[in-house]
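Re: the request from the purification team.
They wanted to know what the chain is likely to look like in 3D before they choose a buffer screen. I agreed to run a prediction and write the result into the notebook, where they can find it.
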Amino acid sequence: MKKKFFILCIYLMNIGLLESQNNSSSQYIIDIDNATNLGRIPISHFFKSLKIIPLETTEDCLIGRIDEMQTCGDRLFICDNNIANAIFVYNREGKFLKKIANRGGGPEEYNQIESFCIDSLNNSILLLDNSKHKIIEYNFITGEYIQSISLKGDITPCHIFKINNTLYGDLYYYNTNIPANNCYLLQKIDLKTGNIIEKYFPVYQYNRGWTNRNFIESYAFYPIYSNHCLFVQSFMDTVMLINPEGVSPYFTIKSKNFVTNNIINNFIESKSPQENIPFYMLENKSIYKISEIIESKSQIWFSYMQGFGLTKAYYNALENKTYTYTQFNDLLLDKDRGITYIQPNYLIAEKEGFFYQVTSDNIPVIKHFAQQGFLNPKIGNIEYLKNIDDEDSNPILFYYEFK
């Protein structure tokens, strides 16, 4: 009994030591407990302009919802994997260019798109199809098939990202008996064989002991600009940087309320379905789920959850200070009108700005605002919004440009 207790103490000490080492090796330590609350501020405090991009809608490009988006040069790649099960390619003005929809049972076809990424070096797009346990690559200019990569093993990614000639994926352990102490968060995949070359970040050390089995993350990779991608999962307090040199800690969230290994372990021992974890976080008032990451120059914007509440924050690296805030969108509206009932969804950030989507459900609201004269006259496309078909229109993109 004493021996078991001693081993447990050593294990817990090692966890604490490893977490301390992770924090100290990050480029930035972001203290949210001592953040300055700016209150309600105009979004123009941070960003220069808003461009509204209506996506062309024809019978060839009907999008139910944008589930994932990537950019490459003047092209926007939009994935609707639930309704259309296809990739739509647009230019930055919203003009439809191409549809990649090679569905079927053949070797050059896919059944269901789980995720995708862009290879800008080779003008190709890689589609993850977990139903076939494959990654299928096409030329995104011609749409021609290039190759298929059969993934090996019982563990699978739900999100992928390629940087130069290195392919990464997150890790999900569906229907496996692999114990949590042998589970990881990130993998490097061999582009020729589909084998896992390397695994990173044990879940007990980096994700509070949480193993992804059934609860699928909305995001894993945040490609900010060329050769600079961030990676995070729901219970990680440290956001990782992926670049051509490899993988390393980038910034760490410091808070006494961040979810602990004990809280996650108690939830796991309760045998509750993984889908119930948000309710458990609410009960414990735990901070978790760093998301909506945007980066420009010396500032990092992000969101985090505490229970069911979402907090927006940004970190100024030059000042080494953290701020929290709520915002009103003066780039969209002519004045602060309180609740707008328009809830754009984060899509992707890049070097010059970032994209949100207005889903089809919210289009009648923005149409009403345009007709009532509530929109900022500087945004353009207001006449289009006044007459938009709010029943059959594709989602609308909001593009915010950095100052």
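For the purification team: Residues 1-21 have pLDDT under 50 and may be disordered.
Please add any questions underneath this entry.
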